[in-house]
Amino acid sequence: MKYAQITGWGKCLPPANINNDEISTIVETNDEWITTRTGIKNRRVSHVSTAELATLAAKRALACAGIEGKELDLVLLATCTPSTMVANTASLVQKNLGAVGAAACDTNAACSGFLYALQLATAQIRAGLIKKAVVIAAERMTWYVNWAKRDSAVLFGDGAGAVVLEASDTPSGLLASKIGCDSEDRNILHIANYGTDQDKYIATGPSDLLFEGREIFKRAVKGMSEACDDVLSQANLQLDDINVLVPHQANLRIIQAIQQRLQIADDKVMVNIDQYGNTSAATIAIALCEAVEKGLITPNANIMSAAFGAGLTWAASYIKWGPRVTPLAECLEELPSCEKTGLELIAPAVAACQLVNTQD
């Protein structure tokens, strides 16, 4: 049986930043309020499209793996903020990568999207249907934010991460996984005024991003912890066998609660929510890259990852890292330069949101 080894990894974070003090000039809040409740200090705001973020993250992952786009059999993009719905955004990324003839598909499981996509691509390699794939998670969550509402304004950021999977005879890559969805309670986290259920001839205004924080917290901790237990059982592993926990970066309190339930030490947990906020599907992909960069992921490491998102989707995965933690090559491309600050980039959206809020 073939395995789907991770041979390349890359991330793309837009340069413009908004810190908590700057957010407090938009909505009534402050750094202490945000930090104590979420753990977030900064978030990135993109001046380019989701497709551009995804493309650069993928190019960096391909260079890391030492392969070219034309060698790919599959381009799989996890996103809930696609650049275009039809055609799918993955097809544009495929074109940008020169992955001629490769299958290209978007998948949307919100914050659980990267782990969903990783399982889908891994299954195709292990079934012998394909040999090489790039799995990307890219989001422009600030596009959805209603800047007149504190609860959503402080949480989200933009970014992308990617991994290359290659068929291997060595047991590595995604070795155990559990994904699911608690759809009965899907309304506690959703965007109500977006999609084809809406009358497209009536202006809807800013995105109506709705969530019930306390209920989400309880379900996220329970769902991710139980999924991790299931994955450990599948893989016949004990908690002591896990070298690194790479959780979805939605809220520091949730990360700490899962860490406590799984009894994993601080030095084994990858946390970067303070710098980027919640980038939805992209959080785990970005965190994986940074865990390698920081030396948290070492050759042949056992990695546990878990996520919880709108839907309510959930996922947990056991990943066996390969023997290499250094890139084979480097992609020297960068995003187009950005002449605006984070606040300047969102200024038109802020004005529109505040106008609608005033009228209401």
UniProtKB/TrEMBL annotation:
Keywords: Acyltransferase, Cytoplasm, Fatty acid biosynthesis, Fatty acid metabolism, Lipid biosynthesis, Lipid metabolism, Multifunctional enzyme, Transferase. Residues 232-321 form the Beta-ketoacyl-[acyl-carrier-protein] synthase III C-terminal domain. Pathway: Lipid metabolism; fatty acid biosynthesis. Its EC number is 2.3.1.180. It is an enzyme of class 2 (transferase). It catalyses: malonyl-[ACP] + acetyl-CoA + H(+) = 3-oxobutanoyl-[ACP] + CO2 + CoA. It is found in: Cytoplasm. CDD domains: KAS_III. Residues 106-182 form the Beta-ketoacyl-[acyl-carrier-protein] synthase III N-terminal domain. Residues 249-253 are annotated as: ACP-binding. It comes from the Bacteria. The active site is at C111, H248, N278. It holds the Pfam family ACP_syn_III. The last Arg residue of the ACP-binding site is essential for the weak association between ACP/AcpP and FabH. NCBIfam families: fabH, PRK09352.1. Belongs to the thiolase-like superfamily. FabH family. Catalyzes the condensation reaction of fatty acid synthesis by the addition to an acyl acceptor of two carbons from malonyl-ACP. Catalyzes the first condensation reaction which initiates fatty acid synthesis and may therefore play a role in governing the total rate of fatty acid production. Possesses both acetoacetyl-ACP synthase and acetyl transacylase activities. Its substrate specificity determines the biosynthesis of branched-chain and/or straight-chain of fatty acids. Homodimer. This is Beta-ketoacyl-[acyl-carrier-protein] synthase III. It comes from Pseudoalteromonas fenneropenaei. The gene is fabH.
